[in-house]
Design goal:
The protein is of the alpha/beta class. The protein contains 15 helices and 12 strands.
Length: about 375
């Protein structure tokens, strides 16, 4: 990723004059796990520039019954804890709150606005110019037909277009780092791209208390965190398969006396607890993060091994330095855990396969000694 000979999109003179910059993105937890390293590097290089982030809600809806859930997006807890982020636009979940946030952003008169929106690229190209009519605005480009006058006009009003994916990029962190290299001339090493997280001590203490008082007694045995759930069916493992894995590991040398933490979504907690009781498995408990995002990484930090389907959990595991076994489809190889020395990936056998196609034996074969 050596583009040091190429001038950055945004001139150093503009960066020296700027007092703030707005980044627009439809951030997921996995995105921010790696993109946070880029934001931190930018802050270190330009500490005089306040970083503002517009978190755009792709599920924006007029249905008021969904607003409460969209308002409580767990990523906001993490963003609020990062000292280099000066402001977050989080009220984009309805057309009305979106319009109010847009008016608020326009009043800021941002000198620089950058969109990292990969989906709905024309919308985001239009949005950044609406936010900053006279500033320097950049968005990820999109091919269009010569006769498509709407897209031609929309992207023509940008000051620059960002390449969505360089051909040499293998991992998602390389893609994000390349964006910052193109924009600001900021190269990042593999070590700088490695995700990290500062977990507030109250949540670490709470997780340690849960681990010692609930299913995971204090001792010298290992603790295993298993997450079979994703919000998408094609990325999920049946909970019954997770119970089967626990039973098999309890018969596996080196793991027979381990403690197990089964993660589930809050709305599934009662059902999962009932299934666990019916299974009769010992030294096993059900966990859900209900109050704050940091409950999850704090619990991960208490464990010695994490086994998870294709969700942010496999990347959060890397932020706390715990070995992870990731159960993945073949469709997104750029999203494998970055620290290969501390991770094993178990993929489905065929390209169109779902994570539920992965058998328990494949996970057992990947267990560390």
């Amino acid at each position: 990723m050596n583009q040091a000979h190429m001038p950055p999109i945004i001139a150093p003179s503009l960066l020296q004059r700027a007092d703030k910059v707005l980044f627009v993105a439809h951030l997921a937890l996995g995105d921010f796990t790696y993109m946070s390293r880029c934001f931190a590097a930018f802050h270190a290089a330009y500490p005089h520039i306040a970083i503002h982030i517009w978190v755009d809600e792709l599920r924006r809806t007029i249905d008021y019954r969904q607003w409460a859930a969209l308002r409580s997006y767990s990523l906001f807890d993490w963003l609020d804890n990062e000292p280099y982020i000066a402001h977050v636009y989080r009220r984009t979940y309805s057309p009305f709150s979106f319009a109010a946030s847009l008016r608020q952003a326009r009043r800021q008169r941002y000198p620089i606005v950058i969109s990292f929106g990969l989906s709905r690229r024309t919308f985001y190209a239009r949005l950044v110019r609406r936010i900053s009519p006279h500033g320097f605005v950049v968005a990820i480009g999109k091919p269009f037909k010569p006769f498509d006058l709407v897209k031609r006009r929309t992207f023509g009003r940008l000051d620059a277009v960002l390449q969505d994916r360089p051909p040499h990029a293998v991992h998602i962190s390389q893609i994000y780092a390349n964006w910052f290299l193109e924009l600001f001339g900021m190269p990042m090493t593999a070590a700088q791209r490695m995700p990290v997280m500062s977990i507030p001590s109250p949540w670490l203490q709470r997780a340690a208390a849960w681990a010692s008082l609930d299913a995971c007694e204090e001792g010298k045995t290992r603790r295993v965190f298993i997450n079979p759930f994703s919000k998408q069916d094609e990325r999920s493992w049946p909970f019954s398969r997770a119970l089967e894995l626990v039973r098999a590991m309890q018969s596996t040398p080196g793991w027979h006396d381990a403690r197990f933490v089964l993660n589930c979504l809050p709305q599934q907690r009662e059902q999962c607890q009932a299934s666990l009781r019916d299974s009769g498995l010992a030294r096993t408990g059900v966990f859900s993060a209900t109050d704050n995002f940091f409950e999850l990484p704090a619990m991960l930090a208490q464990c010695d091994l994490i086994i998870s389907v294709e969700t942010a959990t496999i990347h959060l595991a890397q932020t706390v330095g715990v070995p992870v076994i990731a159960l993945m489809r073949q469709l997104s190889p750029e999203w494998v855990p970055l620290d290969a020395a501390n991770a094993k990936v178990v993929m489905v056998d065929h390209r169109d396969g779902w994570v539920k196609d992965i058998p328990v034996q494949a996970v057992l074969d990947s267990l560390p000694a």
